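Sat 14:20. Reprocessing the chain from the morning session after the first attempt stalled halfway. Input below, unchanged.
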Amino acid sequence: MIETPAAAVISDKLAPLVDFFSVGTNDLTQYTLACDRQNPKIERFCNTHHEAVLRLIELAARNAHENGAWIGICGELAADTSLTETFLRMGIDELSVSPPYVLKVRDTVRKIDLSK
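Finished this time. Tokens:
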């Protein structure tokens, strides 16, 4: 599980030891931005699209693939269709979403042309 910034940063060292990574985006976002995503008083600071979070995911994806491992994403971001193309372009191999989101995400994936 890549759930902390530390795990993402050393993913080059972890990748040779595993068959796959699963990025827990809820915890990764919370720990990267140092905010409690369940605290309504600071919810506005917990930007799930923050560049730091996305860079950590991309770093882990690159390191996974360079070492022959696949990488999946779970958590709320996996179902965020505004980021689906971004994740596919990063090389994310799997988006693990709750059942209510499967059709919406699958439809979004089918509409993306990665050759462009």
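The mean pLDDT is 94.
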